[in-house]
Design goal:
Order of helices and strands: HHHHHHEHHEEHEEEHHEEEEHEEHHHHHH
Number of domains: 3
Strand content: 5-15%
Radius of gyration: 22 Å
Helix content: 25-40%
Number of strands: 12
Shape: globular
Largest sheet: 2 strands, parallel
Low-confidence stretches: 1-8, 10-29
Strand order of the largest sheet: 1-5
Number of helices: 18
Distance between the termini: 45 Å
Length: about 400
């Protein structure tokens, strides 16, 4: 970056930060704002990411190019026009860690909240829900664009990022094997003071979408509980936020004061439930084939017996709305290990709205394409679908 451009970047950052502080940050104490909580609330998880994992030391040395390569994303709406223009014209040195600090100062790194002192030193870092459950539309550059809340960040290499922490050196190779878009929420838990090993070896799952959940009722792969149950579990035990969580089914109880999460769960839930599944782009599927595929879906393939419209899951179809309808791993041909570490020991039928957007499929990403999903069930249930029926069914799934 040239001295002139660097000066413009820093000057714009300072001006924008002041404006940003008086506008967006001024709204942050309003904890009834679910979007604000989702995007910007760390729940005090700096106690994990800064005090234990020391990620602020790592991030201070990371260039924007490296950060983008492991799936961190930049919110273009948080950038001053001069900075956006410089990025658009390749006038920003993306190999300079100082630029990373300026992006953090602008609060432009999706899901990462950093505090920079008056000397320009990064002194703390925390994470938010948006880190895993948002991406951007790449409208400014690859990895830089307008936020897409609820879209799973399938480029985020959480294992590699965690492996950079000195506190997790023993798991570096194991976590690195996760791959982009995966995380293991059953490997360890943070109890406010340290990390507790829950299960070994690690069994990562795909980061799921947080959109299209209205009416679903049980929002996790294993249907452990309603959305606020999972938000509490992840926010406290995985993100490291300050709060209280207890579930005897998995033998985990965490108690911390003050509780910075529980009172925010309703607003967070309401915002997540407001996120609609993205509509399939025009021209992305064959409409005539999709109509034929819908008949296969409800007919010969029998998909609708578990994937019941309009949510395309049967998890809330039982006589008691508080008890999920679940399926044994063997019954659906799924890996039993992850389920065995959950509270229910079973799997929920995955909602299908927006399935076109988030390949690969199944909780472990074992199906690279929708055709692989169809092939899996065709073989498991001996459906004897023809090649044409499979192709039509795929087009229907792409249309949802």
């Amino acid at each position: 970056m040239s001295r002139a451009v660097r000066s413009a970047f820093v000057s714009a950052a300072v001006i924008f930060a002041a404006t940003f502080s008086s506008s967006l940050f001024a709204q942050r104490p309003d904890r009834s704002n679910g979007q604000t909580i989702f995007r910007f609330d760390t729940f005090g998880d700096e106690q994990l990411w800064t005090d234990v994992l020391r990620m602020h030391e790592v991030i201070a040395t990371v260039s924007p190019r490296t950060a983008l390569s492991v799936g961190l994303r930049v919110d273009a709406a948080a950038l001053p026009a001069s900075v956006a223009d410089a990025l658009r014209n390749d006038q920003v040195n993306l190999d300079d860690p100082a630029v990373t600090l300026e992006l953090l100062r602008l609060n432009a790194v999706v899901g990462i909240i950093g505090k920079i002192d008056d000397t320009g030193r990064l002194v703390s870092v925390g994470t938010t829900c948006a880190l895993c459950h948002s991406t951007v539309d790449n409208s400014l550059a690859s990895g830089i664009g307008i936020r897409l809340d609820g879209w799973p960040n399938r480029t985020l290499d959480a294992g590699v990022i965690l492996g950079l922490s000195p506190a997790l050196a023993a798991f570096k190779d194991e976590f690195a094997a996760w791959g982009p878009g995966k995380y293991d929420p059953r490997h360890h838990a943070f109890d406010g003071t340290g990390l507790r090993l829950l299960n070994e070896p690690s069994e990562p799952v795909l980061i799921p979408p947080a959109y299209g959940l209205q009416g679903v009722g049980f929002e996790t792969y294993t249907g452990d509980g309603p959305i606020s149950y999972w938000n509490a579990y992840v926010g406290i035990s995985q993100m490291g936020g300050q709060g209280n969580f207890s579930d005897s089914r998995i033998g985990l109880t965490i108690t911390q004061k003050p509780d910075r999460i529980t009172s925010k769960l309703p607003a967070l839930r309401d915002y997540q439930l407001s996120l609609l599944a993205p509509i399939a782009p025009a021209g992305s599927f064959d409409a005539a084939a999709a109509r034929r595929g819908e008949r296969v879906f409800h007919g010969k393939a029998g998909c609708a017996s578990c994937h019941i419209p309009p949510t395309y899951t049967d998890v809330s179809s039982g006589p008691n709305p508080d008890v999920p309808v679940l399926h044994d791993a063997t019954a659906v041909g799924s890996d039993p290990v992850y389920a065995s570490r959950s509270a229910t020991k079973q799997y929920r039928a995955t909602p299908l709205r927006g399935a076109w957007q988030h390949p690969p499929y199944f909780h472990d990403g074992s199906a690279a394409t929708l055709l692989a999903v169809v092939d899996h069930y065709d073989e498991l249930f001996r459906l004897n679908l023809s090649a044409q029926q499979k192709a039509d069914l795929v087009e229907f799934l792409k249309s949802l």
